[in-house]
Description:
alpha+beta
Amino acid sequence: xxxxxxxxxxxxxxxxxxxxxxxxxxxxxxxxxxxxxxxxxxxxxxxxxxxxxxxxxxxxxxxxxxxxxxxxxxxxxxxxxxxxxxxxxxxxxxxxxxxxxxxxxxxxxxxxxxxxxxxxxxxxxxxxxxxxxxxxxxxxxxxxxxxxxxxxxxxxxxxxxxxxxxxxxxxxxxxxxxxxxxxxxxxxxxxxxxxxxxxxxxxxxxxxxxxxxxxxxxxxxxxxxxxxxxxxxxxxxxxxxxxxxxxxx
Length: 249
């Protein structure tokens, strides 16, 4: 089984499992401090279960089904939007356009690590630190090419792709699940980051003490995905959620 495939001229990688151990190991191998790690979020509605998650939560990775409900919503939401062209040190968040097939998990991880408080925990001399530094001045297409051509990123991702609990699919397998990342920027704004959209999506202002697992953030972020599926009468509720937060160690 090939971990990377070129199909019809496009690179595909083995999809990443939304597993906190897999994601943490990949992030640490790339250059994130051991002080942060990913954790399962078993419930966003039961305070007792939510209390097990270390705080503050710096980023959320949500996996959700990409059926008709979501695809129709996305097409309608994006139809009148211009392609994002932001770049440079004044960019409120770093956004990566996805051009690698089945790499939405990788894009989510990079979005979580490249923004807000989490970015301060990245070793500037590491592969991830160098990647972020090189990405900042680039426009979205050039930034996407940087990720596409990165051998260190490809190597680390391929190793992580075989480390989960699920059966490892072919790199170019058709998958019906997708990742989105929610982050809080340095100016306390909440953002939805998805490399398959036309750019970063601002969701509103958070208070200085509100993180991405706060009620306000959950209501406009994760719950909007859940509620959209429920409202449409969809029974496809294969959602999972992990967050980037302080390590237990």
